[in-house]
């Protein structure tokens, strides 16, 4: 049972926009910054978004992050088949004094 | 650009220990905050612990307290994660990663991981 809650899967057609939610509490998302990671099968996670909405060099601007209250959202516009991957949110939980992740969301581009 | 290369896959018996290494290149391990995250087959990411620059010490998540030890060899720029008393549910891919963590002016914690090692599969089986 993950501390952060994500939908197990989302899907959309190529060219469309999809959003992935990440729900937490006042001890984690409500208090601290959120990051997002992209993971392709059999490979290591890769940082996609940090500090809620900042993109590292290499992350296309089709990917955007936002946070409101105790929830965060990853939006991907102009979907491409190459975006099919698992996506994880992460943050620090001040109550647990631990790093926490969501359970992951599998994106399918139909 | 920091680059992390981990040691190869391991097969261990229940009750044994495993030590996974993470070689850092293009940087110095003493200037990095090294963390370890694991992923059981078909499951999500689980933070195990890492160096906290606020406290100046390595912290472990409660689940692994007493079973995990994370160390660094400054002379070889290598980080290590040792897990003892292995059980079948410790079967997972173990990742090393470098963390960025600090408190901003409002007291909110900035916290993210980049880059990541390629992962080391540890299989625990009798």
Q: Could you explain the architecture of this structure?
A:
The complex is a heterodimer of chains A (110) and B (126). Chain A is 0% helix and 44% strand. Chain A is built from no helices and nine strands. In chain A, the strands form two sheets. In chain A, strands 1, 3, 4, 7, 8 and 9 form a six-stranded mixed beta sheet that branches. Chain A has a three-stranded antiparallel beta sheet with strand order 2-6-5, with no helix packed on it. Chain B is an all-beta fold. In chain B, the strands form two sheets. In chain B, strands 2, 4, 5, 6, 9, 10 and 11 form a seven-stranded mixed beta sheet that branches. In chain B, strands 1-3-8-7 form a four-stranded antiparallel beta sheet, with no helix packed on it. In chain B, a hairpin with a 5-residue loop joins β4 and β5. The mean pLDDT of chain B is 95. Classes of the chains: A mainly beta (110), B mainly beta (126). At the A-B interface, β7 and β8 of A face β5, β9 and β10 of B.
Helical fraction of chain A equals: under 10%
Radius of gyration of chain A: 13 Å
Q: What percentage of the residues of chain B does DSSP assign to strands (E)?
A: over 45%
The mean pLDDT of chain A is: 97
H/E series of chain B: EEEEEEEEEEE
Shape of chain A: globular
The number of distinct β-strands of chain A equals: 9
Multimer state: heterodimer
Can you summarize the main beta sheet of chain B?
7 strands, mixed
Helix share, percent of chain B:
under 10%
Which chains make the largest contact? A-B, 28 and 28 residues
Tell me the number of helical segments of chain B per DSSP (H or I, 4 or more residues long). 0
Separation of termini of chain A? 28 Å
Give the class of chain A from helix and strand content and strand pairing.
mainly beta
